[in-house]
Give the backbone structure.
Amino acid sequence: MNILFLLQRSLGRLAKDVRGQDIIEYALMAGFVVTAAVAFLPGMATSISTIFSQVAGALATAASQG
């Protein structure tokens, strides 16, 4: 058989093979989620810290009055 024919046939089979496609899609999705988390968490951390500081201040005020 001709080596070019064997190569074409092998590449054709490889192109039609979809095994493992789901795992690749899940890995890509996980990568996007991690990228989004890294992008948004620094801003959220500041907001969360501010909220907890306000709550702590309100609790301290309530404790000193009661």
In short: Helices lie at 3-16, 21-65. The chain has a mean pLDDT of 82. The chain has two helices and no strands.
